[in-house]
Amino acid sequence: MKTVLAPSILSADFAALGDAVAKLDAADCDWIHLDVMDGTFVPPITFGAQMASALRPFSRKPFDCHLMVAHPETQVEQFASAGADRITIHVEATQHLHRALESIREHGCAAGVAINPATPVSMVFDVLDLVDLVLVMTVNPGWGGQKLIEPCLEKVRTLRARTSTHHIEVDGGINDVTAPAAVRAGADVLVAGSFAFSGEPKERLAKLRRAACAVFEV
Ligand code: DX5
Ligand code: ZN
Q1: Which residue has the CA at smallest separation from atom 9 of ligand 1?
Q2: I need a surface site. Which of 126, 136, 171, 178 has the fewest CB within 10 A?
Q3: Rounded to whole angstroms, how far apart are CA atoms 213 and 218?
Q4: Does this model's pTM top 0.90?
Q5: Which long-range contacts link 193-196 to residues 24+ away (Cβ below 8 Å)?
Q6: CATH number at residue 22
């Protein structure tokens, strides 16, 4: 499985998000990760579907929308219409996960399910048929620039032993130093926010790619 790089615009200049997406488009990245926060599921508020729609013309790469929102089922239609390719929702955010995940597919998007650091990985086992991606949070959601919580990688290992067909995405504290351990654990999608924007995204992502590729070279 080729490693998918999914840089997040969370750490970009919010006054110039269109430029940030265009820069990622020109860099070695596969998906563009949009961190949606509602001030309830997590304290900060970032942006919603209207922003996804405004950013859509700046890249043709898939928009990987990570909804850190309560009641995500109320947002699915809006994000699908805004041009989201993938929509990931949290186990902890809805009482009706099964129905919400079904609705993502019904709206023509790839569905993902996310778990916070304190959530057991077994919480996703019964919905694996409804998703093609599991997002394992490797920090507590809400903020960029935090340190990866190592024990979360154990959940990646457990999941990878169970499935070879799902994407396993790690999100939080991913950089050129931590990426190899995440890839070795079985992650194939790397989200990087602060690392991608702590310099020129093109150069930063090339560095992340080299670190991920090195795992497969003997
Ligand atoms: C955190 C977000 C992440 C964030 C990661 O709540 O879900 O996608 O952008 O940021 P870094 O890579 O800085 O940890
Ligand atoms: Zn995210």
Answers
A1: 193
A2: 126
A3: 10
A4: yes
A5: 193/7, 193/8, 193/9, 193/10, 193/11, 193/33, 193/35, 193/144, 193/145, 194/11, 194/144, 194/145, 196/7, 196/8, 196/11, 196/24, 196/29
A6: 3.20.20.70
Residues 6+ away with beta carbon under 8 Å from 31: 4, 5, 6, 61, 62, 63, 64, 85, 86, 189
Instruction: Report which of 116, 179, 127, 176 is spatially closest to residue 152, judged by C-alpha positions.
Output: 116
Tokens of 64: 């990987």
**What residues make up the domain containing 38?**
4-217
Q: How far, in Å, from the CA of 145 to the mean position of ligand 1?
A: 7
Classify residue 176 by burial, with Cβ atoms within 10 Å: 0-12, 13-18, 19+. Answer: middle
- Specify the DSSP class assigned to residue 179: H
- Does any ligand 1 atom lie closer than 6 A to the CB of residue 169? no
Show pLDDT as tens, one digit a residue, over the chain (218 residues). 799 999 999 999 999 999 999 999 999 999 999 999 999 999 999 999 999 999 999 999 999 999 999 999 999 999 999 999 999 999 999 999 999 999 999 999 999 999 999 999 999 999 999 999 999 999 999 999 999 999 999 999 999 999 999 999 999 999 999 999 999 999 999 999 999 999 999 999 999 999 999 999 97
Cα of 141 from ligand 2 centre, angstroms? 7
| Atom of ligand 1 minimally distant from the CA of 37 | 6
User: What angle do the packed helices 201-214 and 17-26 form, to 10 degrees?
Assistant: 50
